[in-house]
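Example (one chain per record):
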Amino acid sequence: MQNPTQYAPCPKCGQSNAQKVSFTWWGGALGPRLFTQVKCQNCKTEYNGKTGKSNQTNILIYFVASFVIAFCVCGGLAALVKLPFYIPMISRQLRHFEVQIGGATSPVKPHADGWYCILPANVL
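Predicted structure:
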């Protein structure tokens, strides 16, 4: 256990009896270490032990950066890059698609230019 006097005083109650936080929902075990997250033993407020200020901005940056890294690692970027290749596949599926308009079922028909339109049931 670290010496509680080595951290900045609590911004809420002014006490300096804070203890280092080892795990949080937003940063797991790494986040609190990166931002010196401490918890006041008097009022239970969590704050940055170096500056004595809130870690909300740091938490937001950490959360967004973690999301972006996880998104890229999981192939999200690859899916976005390949999206134009999926459009023809989606348009082929539209050929078998029907829409209900005013109680009548209308098929989706392709135009000569490659776009699709919904034809009213009475046009067929």
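Caption: Strands lie at 18-20, 37-40, 46-48, 98-101, 104-110, 116-118.
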